[in-house]
Amino acid sequence: MNVLVLNCGSSSVKFQLIATDLERIKTNTDRRLARGMVERIGGEAIITLQAEGGAPQRSTAPLRDTRAAVELIIRWVTSEASGIAEARSVADIHAVGHRVVHGGERFTHSVLITDEVLGGIEDCIDLAPLHNPANLKGIAAAREVFGAGLPQAAVFDTAYHQTIPDYAYLYALPYQLYRRYRVRRYGFHGTSHRYVAYRYRQLLGLERAATNVITLHLGNGCSVAAIRAGDSVDTSMGMTPLEGLVMGTRSGDIDPAIIDYVAAKEGLSAQEVETLLNKQSGLLGISGLTNDMRELLDEERESDDRRARLAIEIFCYRARKYIGAYLAALNGADAVVFTGGIGENSAEIRTRICDGLQWLGLELDAERNAAHHGGLQGLISADSSRLAVYVIPTDEELLIARDTVRCIGGAPQRY
Ligand code: AMP
């Protein structure tokens, strides 16, 4: 079965075409037939398209909206020019899997999209005003292009974290704010945390019930999850993806009183302060240079830039504090798992996060650590380490495609 995976943002659409079915899932033989991205929709869009084994093709075209972008993607995928033998016509695309950011308390699993499900995603717009409308546009575009008969599934960023207990998801605010407006921790990156926890237990041949790990997703967005017996029991992102770790441009945890103080001092509205916390803070805000960790590490190495160093230090220190907190939340864990662009590729950041955890018997193996980048998965701690440390590359698109197949086949989703 060829599943088109769509991740629709406000002005971008990322996609992959993945050949998978229940047999391929069992044997781990799914194939990624194509991938790509359309950015800056609404103007002269930048288009990147890549078939399996081919080089990325870049071009531009004026694209009005999400529907035009989805149409372009499908036209290319099924064209002679893409050279994808498995997708000669629209009929060769058998299902669509959508990444949906917010599923609120309603969606605890991936689901086939029906009118009722669409209503549920709409109900969560209040909680994710930037993301859910874009996701809905993607679903509507795919429905228009393929017709209502083609199965489409929604895979939620929040769903995996719905097992977090109330004492961990509630904020210490007046309880009616939760009752009236659903103010609580939801957590995000759930598909990524779930995927790496699943790969971890596959790698070690463990039962789900024996999966007790802390997973760190460190990319442009960053979050950490505490996983007990395979379930998420706490996570650092909150009601929105702003809370928790230091990120590329997001502040993560701050004292909420800062918002009013900065608004008054700088003459900003609440909305403008929120933008400052989301877009001008984090690594970019501290360094004044960039939100890109690789560039910051280069800057620190080559120019000994003080603020680049500080940004990296604050980033690593915050991550280390969360590992400590989640070891307490879990009453100990068996492993720490790094994933995401930074977590998968930077031995240096992994070292600096783990440095200072020797007291609990965490010991990295320098050679193993240095060898893990560019998609390699495996153990990076020493054999004598009391807490194991792994690098496991994430693959949210694969999990979305697999969930889509399982939703269609009525097979249980693997959590
Ligand atoms: P993601 O959002 O998962 O694609 O991750 C993007 C982040 O990963 C950016 O900050 C990149 O600079 C960072 N990154 C990718 N490769 C490396 C690397 N080799 N060393 C440090 N950071 C990296």
Short description:
The chain is an alpha/beta fold. The chain has helices at residues 22-27, 66-77, 115-123, 132-146, 166-169, 175-181, 190-204, 257-266, 270-279, 282-287, 293-303, 306-330, 340-345, 347-354, 366-371, 396-409, and strands spanning 2-8, 13-19, 31-39, 44-51, 57-62, 95-100, 111-112, 152-156, 213-218, 222-228, 231-235, 335-339, 378-379, 388-391.
CATH architecture of the largest domain: 2-Layer Sandwich
In percent, how much strand structure appears in the residues?
15-25%
Q: What coarse outline follows from CA principal-axis ratios?
A: globular
> In DSSP terms, counting alpha (H) and pi (I) runs of 4 or more, how many helices?
16
Radius of gyration: 21 Å
Identify low-pLDDT runs.
none
Q: Report how far the terminal alpha carbons are from each other.
A: 22 Å
Biggest sheet strand line-up? 5-4-3-2-1-6-8-7
Structure description:
The strands form two sheets. An eight-stranded mixed beta sheet has the order 5-4-3-2-1-6-8-7, with helices on both faces. The chain has helices at residues 22-27, 66-77, 115-123, 132-146, 166-169, 175-181, 190-204, 257-266, 270-279, 282-287, 293-303, 306-330, 340-345, 347-354, 366-371, 396-409; strands at residues 2-8, 13-19, 31-39, 44-51, 57-62, 95-100, 111-112, 152-156, 213-218, 222-228, 231-235, 335-339, 378-379, 388-391. The protein is globular. By secondary structure, the chain is α/β, with parallel strands linked by helices. The two termini are 22 Å apart. 40% of the residues lie in helices and 19% in strands. The chain folds into two domains: 2-156, ATPase, nucleotide binding domain (Nucleotidyltransferase, domain 5); 207-391, ATPase, nucleotide binding domain (Nucleotidyltransferase, domain 5), CATH 3.30.420. The longest helix is centred in the C-terminal third of the chain and has 25 residues, at 306-330. It has 16 helices and 14 strands. Bound molecules: adenosine monophosphate (AMP).
